[in-house]
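README: folding subset

This subset contains proteins for which both the sequence and a predicted structure token string are available. Records are stored as plain text. Below is the entry for ClpXP adapter protein SpxH (274 residues), shown exactly as it appears on disk.
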Amino acid sequence: MNNIQLLSEPVASEKTTKPIELYIFIDPLCPNAFKLQSMLKKLQLEYEHYFTWRYVLSTQLTTLNCVTRRIKGCLTGADVDITHPALPSLAIKAAELQGKKAAYRYIRKLQEHALLETKNVHSYTALIEIAKEAKLDQEEFIKDFGSKEAVRAFQCDLYITREMEIDEVPSIVFFNECIEDEGLKVSGMYSYEIYVQILQEMLDEEIVSKPLPTFEELFQRFQCLTTYEVASIYSISMNDAERELKKRMLQQKIERISNNAVTFWRLKQSSYSF
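--- output ---
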């Protein structure tokens, strides 16, 4: 694995009771980011008792000042709407100001619309609508979108990306609880088994997986999944995954949303208690 290397200086972060911390470097609208997040779901389900994680946005952008001025103009009515490649990243950092879970919900909704092509995810207006769908505080989100805090948070992510010499996304850097130890940078995508192996080697002990949840429990936790994600989580074929998902759809537990490129299965609002 030529794209795995040691890093000598981990980034300072909050103390955690879990022994491993993952820094996950993504461009949220890159197809490989979605594949990595699918792998991460299974890793969470089986081994999250060993690690915490945070996303670091690694989108390459150079025009933040201009964009934030235009956002403020949009808020005051100077523009009807604006579009720019920087806006999704700024929107994610605005969502993050409402907490990690809020940011995760926002990223997921953003990616759903990008993959289904149901919204222009580079549009200010669309990104505000996505915040509502992700059940964020709308007023707070609009205030934070393009704020100095959101810009600084995004710039901090870009700084971490440069400091850790991340030249390929997605990438993951693994740190253990000993600040003196080197981090392990894994650039690019590998099989699920490789990430499990890295966890085990960093802990230097046999790790024990939790049993995977039932289909119903899975959707209670994640609420919206692709056929590919379900197949990956349960290590079954796409056909078998689709067969099981169609059963739940006929039972009115989930609904199907698709285009020519991707199929999502979403928990129905009336099915929050199976």
